[in-house]
Amino acid sequence: MAINNNGFDPLDMNNYRIERLPKRSKSKAERVLAAAGGPLAILSFVLIYVVLHPAYLLNIDTSSLSEYARNVSQDLGNAEFSRINIAMLAIFVAGIVLWITEAIPNYLTSLIIIISLVLTGVLSEQEAYAQLGHKVMWLNIMSFVLASMLVKTGIAKRFALWFIVRFGKHSSSIFISFLVINVVLSAFISATTAKAAILLPIFMVIAAIYGARGGDKKNNFGRNIVLQNLFYINIGASGFLTGSGANLLAAALITGATGVDIYFTDWMKGNFLVALILMFLGYIVATRIFFPLKKEERLPQIEGGMDRLKEELRKLGKMDFQEIKSALLFITILALWATDKYHGISPTAVAFMGAIFALLPRIGILNWNDVDIPWHLMLFSAGAYTLGAGFKVTDLPSISVNAAFEALGFGTNTPFWLLYLSLTFAMAFSALFFQSKTMRTMIFVPIAIGVANRFGFSIISLALPVAFLIEHVYMLPFNSKPAALLYETDQYSLTDSFKFGFTMLVIGWITNILMGETWYRYLGITPEGVFGIF
After folding, report:
1. Residue 229 in contact with residue 223, Cβ under 8 Å?
2. How confident is the model at residue 233 (pLDDT cuts 50, 70, 90)?
3. pLDDT tens-digit readout, 407-447
């Protein structure tokens, strides 16, 4: 047995369940931000909503301003700002402040946003409250039903354990095995946190087998297996429309602006290849550059450690009928998602049918009490979608983009490549500051839509490449829930995470640019010959 003096068995998967991980206390800076968030949000709302009037914008006295400032003021005055635009801007800024600082729980911020949009007249009650019934919300809910089915039947854990036992013979093959596992799970599970929860106990046991115990016993095997899984969990999700709720939100925003549906197959054609390339590059960068394995780190440190994983797999027994039904149901759902462009059934409708079958009495797979739906995340998403509805009603992104570009002197002849580089850079590197994929989506996809409209380019050509960068949220612990969760394993430092994450972020952005000139152009996403690279 591999039990230490404190009675802790590093090979017991139950020790790595999420509820048993230590809760990281907030740093001093995070506590200061949280304390300041409320007052800052109120102040920003008052300054924008009360002080900033359309009449002020149109009649501002510019006699004492410099020529540049007078031009900026004139451009703002010429913009079609109205009282409803001002209210939308005030609510949006205040909401961003609350979400970033975490002064209050994010779902509570969403509830405040929803009622604020109603009280200020930006949206009617019917429009605002209806966002909880948005088809993307229903897809999220049904996806959690199906993910709960995977957890209850144990089919996802069985697959991960089987793959590791079958193909994880050496340290290098273990990393590649997790790459493949993440790709497969990303096609089925739309919640990156759920994937992290399924895989964490498995790779933590493997880390212990190879001598990585965390704390003062960190080694490069532990750094590799946790940071690579964090990277794979997020980038794997970027290859599928259903990979995360933020992807679905981006597609909904683009569809709303263009009237053209973004199908599962469209997204997969565009970014699945990119996801695979980046995941293999992440493996090379981690194991060859930042965290190369020493000779002793390539060998198991606990005798019989892999046998423990085999024992865990044996405990699951043979696949029962419920697991077989789960596997067949998910294969059917994936097949319908992958062919949605041909049969016309939306991903939401497919998930609906799958969830209904899974919940049917007697012939189904689980009952409602087995379903784990994080309703606080649903409320948070509803607030984000309601903001999107507010953007659509007020046309604030286009108006703001027009004003900003006029102020900065960008003419209508600005080349596509400059807009493409600027927008994709802003989306990629916003991960340095923002903690939510959904919020980055809510900010930068509408901006890309507004820029495309202003300069007469296809909305798809700018908004979709920007959306493909949503899942680059692995650099800092606050970037995403999987990042915060895996940081608690104490297998790597903040410096380790930043240097690997920032490098992959740069590589991801450059890859996006190259794809804009090659693969995206071939698919008709970007215009032909606009970069002049090839």
Report:
1. no
2. very high
3. 666 666 778 888 899 899 989 998 887 667 877 887 888 88
- Alpha-carbon gap, residue 239 to 249, rounded angstroms: 15
Q: Which residue has the tokens 């053209």?
A: 260
Per-residue model confidence as pLDDT tens digits over 460-478: 999 999 999 999 988 877 7
Helices (H) and strands (E) in the chain, counts: 25, 0
The tokens of 313 are what? 């797999």
Predicted pLDDT of residue 499: 92
Q: What integer is the mean pLDDT of 280-307?
A: 82
Instruction: With beta carbons less than 8 A apart as the criterion, state whether 423 and 398 touch.
Output: no
Cα–Cα distance, 467 to 445 (Å, whole number): 7
**CB 131, CB 385: distance < 8 Å:** yes
pLDDT, tens digit (0-9, with 9 covering 90-100), for 304-357? 667 777 787 788 788 888 888 888 888 888 788 778 778 878 777 888 888 888
Which residues, in sequence order, are bridge partners of residue 217?
Answer: 214
- Measured on CA atoms in the order 80, 86, 91, 92, is the torsion positive or negative? positive
| Residue 214, phi then psi, degrees to nearest 5 | 80, 180
81: left (phi over 0), alpha (psi -120 to 50) or beta: beta
Q: How confident is the model at residue 239 (pLDDT cuts 50, 70, 90)?
A: very high
Q: Cα angle vertex 369, ends 364, 372, to 5°?
A: 100
Residue 408 is given by DSSP the state H
The conformation of residue 27, written as its DSSP 8-state character, comes to P
pTM of the model: 0.72
Residue 439 vs residues 64, 71, 99, 456: alpha-carbon distances, Å: 38, 31, 8, 26
DSSP 306-364: HHHHHHHHHHT-S--HHHHHHHHHHHHHHHHHHTHHHH---HHHHHHHHHHHHHSTTTS
What gap in Å lies between CA 208 and CA 534, rounded to an integer?
Answer: 48
Domain chopping of the chain, boundaries:
13-51+82-364+376-522
Residue found under tokens 């009282």: 83
Which residues are within 8 A (CB) of 240 and not within 5 positions of it... i.e. 6 or more apart?
A: 186, 187, 247, 264, 267, 268, 272
Conformation bin of residue 8: beta by default, left when phi > 0, alpha when psi is -120 to 50: beta
pLDDT mean over 1-7: 51
Strand segments (E) across 371-490: none
Q: Other CB atoms closer than 10 Å to residue 375's CB: what's the count?
A: 10
